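Interim report to the steering committee. The following record documents the input for YvrJ family protein (51 residues).
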Amino acid sequence: MMTIESWITLAGNVGFPVVVSFFLLFRLDQCLQNLDKSIDQLTEEVRKKHE
C-alpha cells in the first residue's frame, strides 16, 4: 500500500493527472476483485441449492 508521501512524490515526478489516473485504476481493481469473489460465492450457493 502506498503512503501519502509516496503519492505526493509521484505527483511531483509525473504530474497530478497521471497520479489520479493510477489511483482510480488501483481502486477500480480492488472493487473488481471484490465483485469477482462475490460472484464466485453466489455461484457456489446457487449450485448447492440445485443439487
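The chain has one domain: 4-49. The committee is asked to note this result when reviewing the revised timeline.
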